[in-house]
Design goal:
Oligomer: single chain
Strand content: 25-35%
Structural class: alpha+beta
Shape: globular
Distance between the termini: 70 Å
Strand order of the largest sheet: 7-8-9-10-13-3-4-5-6-14
Radius of gyration: 30 Å
Largest sheet: 10 strands, mixed
Number of helices: 9
Length: 358
């Protein structure tokens, strides 16, 4: 017999207190609460657990049932705390909430967090504005011919029209670099590219992803129609779609549920995005010396960004020749903002202009 069954049996064997006894108990409890406000203990066991019969005489309440109430409350409290810990971070604000134990749990929590967010819904004529910080790798040969690595951080912004047939804008501007490359090799000022107008959605994420279903099974079928059943190819497609679907969290939630069903995903319990924000990641080994990560906030489980990290030293061939990409170096993006604007900003006079074919 477990503790809850034993408490139930004892409760059933104990007679119900009278209405008079209950009234006295309520009065005593009120008195203890008032005492708590004065700095005295809220409840004490023993001689003070009694009531007056109105004629000066005092009678003790049936204490067995009162003791059972306390024991039952304690048991329920322990059960509640165990449930909160056992759900693996189900209550991010609770000091006892355990972190996700595996990649599948983290993705399920991320799906729930995304499902609680509202989709960005622009009005007619408005633009969806997204701002990201990108980390890129620049390899240059020095005067001796040796190839050197520089990490470059770039602000990326996009303004995408809610209306098909209107132009949209992509803007990039390098903000800093760590490494030997001279500034004129990585800082090119504001680089604007104007796309369209076109008669079809083309590349803008909002227009293109707006028609996607949000049922996980349907989302998976749509992805697999392009990638086949190879988990690595599905993961690569998911990584790109997740980065774009920040404008539509309802779709993000479905994408996370699809990702949770893939073989080969692992939990990275401690990482940072390219903006330096701490997080947890779900990753997959890409079988080429790199791993691809989706990074989530440690407390809210909201999507922060993505990275591709070199998991070992590896050689790669670039236009300047063969380079050694060191373990731990990475490229990726961090989402900084998603909002709505009434139109495009002023475009650089040196902007490139492209038309995306349907």
């Amino acid at each position: 017999m477990n503790e809850m069954e034993e408490l139930g049996r004892l409760w059933a064997e104990t007679p119900e207190p009278s209405s008079r006894e209950l009234a006295g108990s309520r009065a005593a409890l009120t008195s203890r609460i008032a005492g708590r406000r004065d700095g005295r203990p809220l409840l004490t066991a023993g001689r003070d657990d009694r009531e007056s019969d109105g004629a000066g005489a005092r009678r003790f309440l049936p204490t067995r049932r009162a003791g059972l109430v306390g024991a039952l409350a304690a048991a329920l409290t322990v059960g509640i705390l165990a449930a909160q810990v056992g759900l693996g971070g189900s209550d991010p604000g609770h000091p006892l909430a355990a972190p996700p134990a595996d990649a599948q749990t983290l993705l399920k929590l991320a799906a729930r967090a995304a499902g609680e967010q509202r989709d960005t819904v622009p009005g007619r004529g408005q633009y969806v504005h997204t701002k990201r910080l990108a980390q890129r790798s620049l390899y240059l040969a020095d005067e001796t011919g040796a190839v050197r690595y520089t990490k470059v951080l770039v602000n990326e912004e996009r303004w995408e029209s809610a209306d098909v047939g209107r132009p949209w804008l992509s803007r990039e501007q390098a903000v800093s670099a760590t490494g030997p490359a001279p500034r004129n090799r990585w800082d090119h000022g504001v680089e604007d590219t104007v796309y369209g107008p076109a008669s079809c959605p083309g590349r803008p994420a909002y227009a293109r992803l707006g028609a996607w279903p949000t049922d996980p099974a349907q989302v998976r079928a749509k992805i697999v129609a392009e990638t086949g059943e190879d988990p690595l190819r599905i993961w690569a497609s998911l990584q790109s779609l997740v980065a774009e679907s920040v404008v539509r969290p309802s779709l993000s939630a479905a994408l996370y549920q699809v990702a949770a069903g893939l073989d080969g995903i692992v939990l990275i319990p401690d990482t940072v995005d390219v903006a330096g924000r701490p997080g947890m990641a779900v990753a997959m080994d890409q079988r080429d010396g790199t791993r691809a990560e989706l990074i989530f906030d440690r407390q809210t489980y909201r999507y922060l960004g993505e990275r591709t990290v070199n998991s070992r030293d590896r050689k790669a061939r670039l236009p300047i020749g063969e380079v050694l990409k060191r373990k731990g170096t990475a490229n990726g993006t961090a989402v900084l903002a998603v909002d709505l604007t009434p139109g495009l900003p002023e475009v650089s006079p040196d902007a490139s202009r492209l038309r995306i074919p349907c």
